[in-house]
Specification:
Distance between the termini: 39 Å
CATH class: Alpha Beta
Strand content: 5-15%
Number of domains: 1
Largest sheet: 4 strands, parallel
Order of helices and strands: HEHEHHHEHEH
CATH architecture: 3-Layer(aba) Sandwich
Structural class: alpha/beta
Length: 181
Amino acid sequence: MLNKKNTFNDFIDCSEYLIKNGYTSSDRFIIDGGSAGGLLIGAVINMRPDLYLGAIADVPFVDILYTMLDPTLSAVVSEYEEWGNPNIKEEFEYILSYAPYNNVKAQNYPNILALAGFYDTRVNYWESAKWIAKLRALKTDDNLLLLETNMNAGHGGSSGRYDFLEEVALIYSFVFKILEK
């Protein structure tokens, strides 16, 4: 709850370690996370966008502050223990300090692919849409910034027998496209 930023700092520290020790370089480092992991992706690219060539945010929980302020949304009240209750001033301010949507600013960002599911009841599709719109308005580079909203998917992606392969192909296409630059 009030130590959540340790997650972001640890991720950045691990990224720096991998670069420093020659496991990868920042011009070939692509990160990926979904749901709460998408929140992680959104937070670290706000904090240290220079470390990453690309970021894939799959149903990212990037609008955490506004979502957590609406107790009528799915699982919000039960998530207070994890994220904090924004109706409590100290917890509101802490969430605000790292919330990906609220901390987008005018700076360069890595190439980004955001994936949303129209029928997602855990992370509503408009979180990704709002986040991408704000990034488009503020980012200062020409890197790719893509949003795919799957009109037949929920939180876990498409449910058809082979539909998930289209999602995998989209992600691979994005990765190959930014690696060819």
